[in-house]
Structure to design on (547 residues):
């Protein structure tokens, strides 16, 4: 074999040496600057950017603000900047963040790197960046509807589906029966597929273990997650179109002893939000909420566990009070639904953009109404309370078991009782009950024990001759229930309640006063829905303990 001839190394010229030293020095200074701002540093001279993200920033804006979109990291877009304190750069970053079309992660680069990156616009035709999307045709959806009329038939249909089409059928099935979540869970023998229907998980099918790797890999590709990471959790997003309906999907992948487990939440992009009068509120509670949300300032809290419908209630409130004369800003984790005419921003703790930081920025945006996704800590609580005392109407959620239970929860968060007592307008607590399937619900005469249980909660209840029992049919997947309705209690902070809070009185004392002034409890609201034939006593006591 002939050997390659060695060419002598050409020595660099003096100018090249000096230029190289200057470049090295420039990168060192840039690296220190990035460290000072606690931002990532990259040397991008010669870097080939991702063609799908370059076009996210228009050329004129990129050149004037010295910013450049160069890569993707999961669902985020990496954004090169040179000087974080430059006014033009800051203005551009604020504008991009406010639009919330994409999530950006700033990375500091040298002036030389930026000059190189901006030159790419002259010779490079950028491609448009799109969130990963799965399209399921109307014909596929119709075929599924014709072949599958029950969960048992869906199991058989999945068994015949090739691995390449498995995920599409899982998506179409979930969308077709209005599931809120898809659970793909590996076990020792197979994969369990479960859908959450009306708040309750139901096993839909079992899938052979050999399908796990292809399913997980495809989900990761669609959600822009790393294929080779299997030992740590990953979160991402993707979109699906089923016929004419579009969904955003939040993806959570968790390593388990049998492989990676996936949960996907389906969020309809064009969700039609119900109005306040359709939530299931009694007349008194609805009047209290209407009065509070039309105040110019104050704090309105919505409490309940995850999945109790708090987002639906808050969005119904925002849609009620939204108008061209009001500036409404929300800070959420994550943004679940897009609201027209409302500015929405999403927290990103990894980038240092958490609830307290977001709230501080929002207050400077001259809002009339602020929605804070959740009050989780002392800092967020104090900023929200102060904002509500300085001319803003603030809405937020809190994890508490009841409306009264929100008060000690705020005290636990180190909020001063006098301060939040003056800020607090109302607290709305809620849960969701499944409603009886209209096709298979059966009338029956309530037993003496059931009558006793009803009167224990609602002493003056007029019990009808018949109540409704859940049975089960194909229309409701043999659950006996179809759809859900809210049950609520609304605590109005009257002068008497305010004095009890400031005096640090017990929850029992505050509850006694609230009921004396006419508060309807969740249990009473639930009994009212049982008597109207919307749900069952068993379902009510599944959600609220029968004490």
């Amino acid at each position: 074999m002939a050997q390659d001839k060695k060419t002598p190394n050409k020595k660099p010229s003096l100018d090249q040496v000096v230029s190289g030293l200057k470049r090295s020095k420039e990168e060192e200074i840039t690296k220190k600057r990035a460290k000072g701002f606690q931002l990532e540093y990259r040397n991008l001279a010669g870097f080939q950017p991702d063609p799908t993200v370059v076009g996210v920033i228009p050329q004129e804006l990129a050149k004037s603000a010295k910013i450049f979109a160069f890569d993707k990291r999961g669902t985020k877009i990496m954004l090169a900047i040179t000087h974080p304190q430059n006014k033009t750069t800051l203005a551009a970053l604020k504008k991009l963040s406010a639009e919330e079309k994409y999530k950006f992660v700033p990375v500091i680069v040298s002036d030389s790197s930026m000059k190189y990156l901006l030159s790419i616009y002259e010779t490079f035709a950028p491609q448009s960046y799109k969130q990963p999307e799965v399209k399921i045709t109307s014909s596929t959806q119709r075929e599924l509807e014709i072949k599958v009329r029950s969960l048992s038939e869906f199991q058989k249909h999945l068994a015949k589906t090739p691995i390449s089409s498995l995920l599409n059928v899982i998506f179409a099935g979930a969308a077709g029966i209005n599931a809120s979540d898809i659970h793909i869970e590996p076990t020792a023998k197979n994969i369990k597929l479960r859908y959450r229907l009306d708040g309750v998980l139901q096993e839909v099918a079992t899938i052979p273990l050999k399908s796990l790797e292809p399913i997980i890999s495809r989900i990761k590709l669609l959600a822009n997650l790393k294929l080779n990471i299997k030992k740590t959790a990953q979160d991402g997003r993707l979109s699906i179109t089923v016929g004419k309906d579009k969904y955003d999907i939040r993806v959570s992948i968790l390593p388990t002893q049998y492989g990676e487990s996936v949960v996907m939440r389906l969020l309809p992009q064009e969700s039609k939000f119900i109005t306040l009068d359709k939530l299931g509120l009694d007349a008194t509670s609805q009047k209290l909420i209407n009065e509070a949300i039309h105040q110019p300032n104050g704090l309105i809290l919505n409490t309940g566990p995850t999945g109790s419908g708090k987002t639906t209630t808050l969005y119904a409130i925002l849609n009620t009070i939204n108008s061209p004369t009001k500036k409404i800003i929300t800070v959420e984790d994550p943004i679940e639904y897009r609201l027209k005419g409302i500015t929405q921003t999403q927290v990103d703790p990894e980038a240092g953009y958490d609830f307290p930081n977001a709230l501080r920025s929002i207050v400077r945006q001259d809002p009339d109404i602020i929605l804070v996704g959740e009050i989780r800590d002392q800092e967020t609580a104090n900023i929200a309370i102060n904002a509500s005392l300085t001319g803003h109407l603030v809405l937020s959620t809190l994890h508490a078991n009841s409306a009264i239970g929100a008060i000690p929860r705020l005290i636990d968060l180190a909020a001063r009782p006098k301060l939040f007592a003056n800020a607090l307008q109302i607290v709305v607590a809620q849960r969701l009950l499944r409603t009886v399937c209209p096709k298979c619900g059966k009338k029956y005469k309530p037993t003496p024990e059931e009558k006793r249980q009803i009167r224990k909660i609602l002493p003056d209840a007029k019990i009808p001759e018949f109540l409704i029992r859940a049975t089960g049919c194909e229309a409701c997947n043999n659950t006996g229930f179809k759809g859900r309705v809210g049950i609520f209690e609304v605590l109005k902070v009257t002068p008497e309640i305010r004095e009890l809070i400031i005096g640090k009185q017990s929850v029992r004392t505050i509850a006694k006063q609230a009921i004396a002034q006419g508060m309807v409890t969740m249990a009473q609201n639930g009994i009212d829905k049982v008597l109207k034939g919307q749900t069952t006593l068993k379902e009510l006591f599944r959600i609220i303990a029968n004490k």
About this structure: The first strand starts at residue 40 and ends at 41. Residues 1-8 have pLDDT under 50 and may be disordered.
